[in-house]
Design goal:
79 residues; mainly alpha
């Protein structure tokens, strides 16, 4: 029974690696990677795990997005 469970875990991890490879092959930026990871963290069923991961990522996303906010605001004002 342990072997069947282990094989299932290995297959699930392989599938996860395939998904990550697809995302990277898509050509995403560092900011997009953080956004994707953050949005995926919000989909976790384990509430505490979701909060912990989202909190860490939110801090990193805020630092990156502060520069983008200035650009977006100036674009809106000039339109």
């Amino acid at each position: 029974m342990k072997d069947v469970h282990m094989i299932k875990l290995v297959n699930m991890r392989a599938k996860s690696r395939e998904i990550v490879k697809e995302i990277l092959d898509f050509g995403v930026t560092e900011t997009q990677k953080l956004d994707i990871i953050y949005m995926l963290s919000l989909e976790l069923e384990n509430n505490q795990c979701m909060k912990d991961i989202a909190c860490v990522l939110k801090n990193h996303r805020e630092r990156i997005n502060k520069g983008e906010e200035k650009v977006s605001i100036s674009k809106i004002l000039t339109v």
